[in-house]
Prior knowledge:
Elements: H1 5-8, H2 13-23, H3 31-42, E1 46-52, H4 54-58, E2 66-72, H5 82-90, E3 94-100, E4 107-115, H6 116-124, H7 132-135, E5 140-144, H8 147-168, H9 178-191, H10 201-208, H11 210-220, E6 228-232, E7 235-238, H12 246-274, H13 278-290, H14 298-302, H15 304-317
Parallel strand pairs: 2-4
Antiparallel strand pairs: 1-2, 1-5, 3-4, 6-7
Helix pairs in contact: 2-8, 2-11, 6-8, 8-9, 9-10, 12-15
Amino acid sequence: MAAGPEDVAGGTEPLRAVVAAQAAAPFPEDLHHVVGALEGRFGGNLAGVLFYGSCLRSGDPRDGLVDAYAVVDAYGPAYPKAWLRWANAWLPPNVFYMECATPAGPIRVKFGVLSLADLERGVGRWFHSYLWGRFAQPVRLGAARDPAARARLVDALTTATATFIRQTAPCVEAPFDAGTLWRVGLELSYGAELRPEDRGRAGRLAEQESAAYAARTAAAAAGAAPLLESVEEGVYRQGPATTLGPRGCRRRWWWRRWQGRLLSLARLIKAAFTFQGGVDYAAWKVERHTGVAVPVTAAMRRHPVVFGLRTVWRLLRARVLH
């Protein structure tokens, strides 16, 4: 089911125009090889490819792992094994690792597989922010199979941003500027998952993408039923299309935080069976973002679930994971 008309046509047309332009912005040339590899893997079932994350922001696809999503029509044709289809439908996305050859050398890629229908549901109807918190941030539409698929993907990205603003603005003391709105929202969405990033990362992300967020915020204050109201130039408050109050907003994020811990653990367990080198990647990411080394043993590689959960508990107690 496509993104609902209440999201795309009910006052968010200016926001859609901004999101579409940002999604169509250039991205590193080497990422076209990633698109080609995913097209070869999923064939005509691939509706589109979305890029996001630190490598996209830095402009260097060899700075860690490229983060991508392969958006497919259906899970059935995507996998030869039934359990992978079931796992993807039960708790999307499935996450995989691949190395993509380019003339300048290989690129390491972490990609999620998500159906177009699950993407649309996740950005507009999911209580948890796992998808709308990610896709409200600037991404690049690496490829779309046809104009109809492109339109649905842009609609989904627009809905993600609208959902993010609806679920964040009531928690921000008005009046506020774009930087404050997005910093608070990113802090809340990051806090709703088990992540190794330090608490200042959301603020740095908001500052790094400040121009993109300023454009989205201004667009959200335009249209027939705006998500935000403009108090003065660059200053906003909650709009008529955002009816949640401050108390209800804080309550929802409290529940998302606890729900997110359970979902994060479930996704970690699932990734242990789909993500080649997942244990080493997780240890690398923790050390990269916190400076805390996590020794990886042969036993951890043989039994990633048992030893992984033990390590997660130790990191939680040490407040390395938040």
